Amino acid sequence: MTVADLEKNVPRDAPRNGTAVRTPVAAADGSAAGLPDVPRRIGGLTRSGVLSLLGAAASGLCTAVLLFGELAPFSGALGFFVTAYLSFLGVYAVLTGLEEDGQAVRDRVMTVVLWTAGGLMFCALAMVVGFTAWRGREALPHGNFFTQDMQAAGPLDPLTHGGIAHAMLGTLIMITIALAITVPLGLACAVYLNQIRGRFSRFVRTIVEAMTALPSIVAGLMVYAVWILGLGMQKSGLAAGFAISVMMLPIVIRAADVVLRLVPGTLTEASEALGAPRWRTVWHVVLPTARSGLATAVILGTARGIGETSPVLLTAGYTAALNADPTSGPMVSLPLAVFNFVKSPEPTMIARGFGSAAVLMALVLVLFAIARVIGGRGPGHQNRRQAKRAARASRRDARRFTDLHAPQPELFETDSPDGSGGSSAPRGAGNGSTNPTPPAPDNETEHGPTDGDRH
Q1: Is the per-residue pLDDT at 365 higher than 70?
Q2: Tens digits of per-residue pLDDT, 194-250?
Q3: Distance CA 302, CA 293 (A)
Q4: Under 8 Å CB-to-CB from 2, ≥6 apart: which residues?
Q5: Per DSSP, what are the bridge partners of residue 392?
Q6: Distance, CA of 334 to CA of 360 (rounded, Å)
Q7: What is the C-alpha separation between 192 and 453, in angstroms, rounded?
Q8: Within a 13 Å sphere around the CA of 257, how many CA atoms are in the beta-carbon half?
Q9: If we measure between CA atoms, which residue out of 363, 319, 320 comes closest to residue 148?
Q10: Is 311 in contact with 218 (CB distance < 8 Å)?
Q11: Backbone angles phi and psi of 208, in degrees to 5
Q12: What's the rounded Cα separation, in Å, for the pair 240 and 227?
């Protein structure tokens, strides 16, 4: 008997060399019914994948060169790169389709598109930050740039005179006033839209969405008409804080609304099932769970409000002197100072403008770091300090439960006649023991069947 004869008697699904082999079986309609369950690799780099990327990139570049240099009368750098990128995607899809199925091809192509978009965004951010810091490198090394104002300095003075202390202080005061107004109102409105859901919730959500597209100049004009013209108040940092809060409020409400929707409903249901009122559930369950997301919402609103210029110009005016009183007198912010510095034709003033912009970005970064520290990590993730505090609370609860369920000493305890230490009298139901008296027999057992049973 040969090896071929032996293999004829082996089943198709039998293991060969210790590995199970599944041979596709043709179905009634001619399709393969028992396809092998081979998991598809989602991430990571492979040799064929890298070669496909490099080959597609070279093909796209060559195609663009041929179209723009030899075959077609195309011109322009933007069109060249767009043509090269589209050709690259097409060739990469074809090369991937030689080895993978349609789903894998779509996945690979979309992965390349997303990586390209992320790379472009990162490059744009790096260019903005780098260009601003590079143009402001002349003003940033001077210490007086952070400690002096522009009251005694002019456009022709060197960088060793004057600074942006008045703009830095004005920005901090205005954004503090805006945050003091926006954070309580924004979080309370988001809780109302998610947890309370009253009769006006749809109306409030519509107003919030409409305020998101409100131009900043309209917010400044509203505060200017009500606070300055209507009530007769003067231009000040307080009025600018009101205008900035109008711009920040819809951003904070919408972002906090989205975050609170992500809180699992089982947490609130469990809290209410234990008898907690709604306000305690929101304060101790919902808000702590969404704390990191709410910090992100505050960051988004702060980034929107800290860069506003026109509302500050209408409500706070402009000054070159340091003013620490937000209730009286004009006050300037960093964005407004950047605008006034950059529009000057003097190189020193332009350097001060780019230096002010770099300080503004650094200030936003500091506020972002503070919000991240306050917000903490996401739900389910604890740092070492939070883990230790949770462990201490668990130990305290365990000791409290142990003391609560510990056996208590009995008051009236007497020795039994047999010396066992038990009570001679039978204990009733009040002290936890059972009644030794046997139950009374049923009527049927003691007196026989009743007349109704006989019939």
Answers
A1: yes
A2: 888 778 888 888 899 888 888 889 989 999 999 999 898 889 999 999 999 999 999
A3: 14
A4: none
A5: none
A6: 7
A7: 68
A8: 22
A9: 320
A10: no
A11: -65, -45
A12: 10
Q: Are 318 and 103 in contact (CB under 8 A)?
A: no
3-state secondary structure of 284: helix
Joined together, the tokens standing for residue 229 give 């013209």
First to last CA, the chain: 86
List the Cα angle 81/60/125 in 5-degree steps: 40
417-425 long-range contacts, CB within 8 A, separation 24+: none
What's the Cα-to-Cα distance from 71 to each of 68, 74, 87, rounded to whole Å?
7, 9, 15
Q: What 3-state class would DSSP assign to 140?
A: coil
Distance CA 43, CA 47 (A): 13
Kindly state the average pLDDT of the residues 395-422.
Answer: 67
CB burial class (10 A; 0-12, 13-18, 19+) of residue 409? exposed
Quote the mean pLDDT of the chain. Answer: 80
Residue with tokens 């990191």: 292
Please report, for the chain, how many H helices and E strands are present, in that order.
19, 0
Q: Which single residue is written with the structure tokens 């500050």? A: 312
Q: What are the E-state strand segments in 88-241? A: none
Inter-residue contact 377 to 288 (CB < 8 Å): no
Residues whose CB is less than 8 angstroms from the CB of residue 308 and which lie 6 or more positions away in sequence, other chains included: 216, 243, 244, 247, 333, 335
**Predicted confidence (pLDDT) per residue in 307-324, tens digit:** 888 899 899 988 888 888
Q: How far is CA 443 from CA 209, 237, 436, 438, 440, in A?
A: 78, 94, 21, 15, 9
- DSSP percent split of the chain into helix, strand, coil, nearest 5: 65, 0, 35
Residue that is written with structure tokens 């090269």 in the block? 84
Neighbours of 379 (CB within 10 A): 16
Cα three-residue angle 114-117-118, rounded to 5 degrees: 85
Are 228 and 315 in contact, with CB atoms under 8 Å apart? Answer: yes
Tokens at 399, concatenated = 């000791």
Residues 247, 219 contacting (CB under 8 angstroms): yes
Alpha helices in 213-342 (DSSP H): 216-223, 237-261, 265-273, 278-281, 287-289, 291-306, 310-316, 334-342
